[in-house]
Structures are given as C-alpha cells and as structure tokens.
Design brief:
Elements (H helix, E strand, L loop, with lengths): L1 E10 L6 E5 L10 E2 L2 E3 L6 H13 L8 E10 L3 E10 L14 E4 L17 H8 L1
Parallel strand pairs: 1-6
Antiparallel strand pairs: 1-4, 2-3, 2-7, 5-6
Length: 133
C-alpha cells in the first residue's frame, strides 16, 4: 500500500484557539474540517512542506524554529496509508487569510469534536486538549 506523508499545523492564537479549515466540497472528504497543511514532496522535510503549504493556503510566513512537533496520526485509507505529524505553531508573520477560498475557524480545543473531521485528523484532538486545556 502506498504511504502518503502529510504535515499538519495547529496554529494557536493568543486566546489558545486552534485554526481549522474546511475542505472544499469538490475534493475528497469535502466539507470536513482539518488542520492546515499538506503533502510532503519527495525532496522536502515535513517542516519545509508545512512552511510552503501554510504560505500557499493561508498567506502566512512561518519560520522552522516556530514549529514544534506535538504528535502524529496514521490512518489506512482504502488506497493509501497516511502518516501525519502535527506541529504546534504560535508565531508567524502576516495575517491568516483563506487564499484557497476555504472556510476557516478559530476553535477552542475542547470544541474541536463538534466539527466533523477526516479520520486521520480526529485522533489529534486529545493531544491539543492536553496541551491547551
């Protein structure tokens, strides 16, 4: 089975809320909420991919030193096996903007379960609740 490496970020604002983005309806798992990030290309480290994806999707500039690994998730989809490290990020340059017209929400960790998420994202919630309360 093919292994897909995806890096994700829990962007945390000063109120300890986490940013989630809604997947476009026309994409697989459309309408579900996820942590921002994306696929790691063959010549990238997860941190590099995350910095690239956060700029492309949200218009922010993140320095690698501002990414702290928190946990990871894995999930076997029918066509591939997904491995997703989750990084915490509390500091970035610029303002978060939905550059791909996706809906964005800042949510307290304890409220994340109210948003339907892909099977790989949901297991990340307990680590965020433990970290942020």
């Amino acid at each position: 089975m093919k292994l897909l490496l995806v890096a994700a970020a829990a962007l945390i604002d000063p109120d300890c809320r986490v940013l989630i983005a809604q997947r476009p309806q026309d994409k697989p798992l459309g309408g579900l909420w996820e942590f921002p990030g994306g696929k790691v290309e063959w010549n990238e480290r997860p941190e590099e991919a995350l910095i690239r994806e956060l700029h492309e999707e949200l218009g922010i500039i993140v320095e690698e030193a501002c990414l702290a690994p928190l946990t990871f998730a894995r999930f076997a989809y029918p066509d591939f096996h997904l491995l997703m490290p989750l990084y915490i990020c509390r500091r970035w340059k610029g303002f978060v903007v939905a550059r791909e017209n996706q809906a964005l929400k800042w949510v307290f960790p304890k409220d994340l379960r109210a948003y339907p998420m892909p099977p790989a994202d949901a297991p990340l919630i307990p680590a965020l609740i433990d970290l942020l309360g």
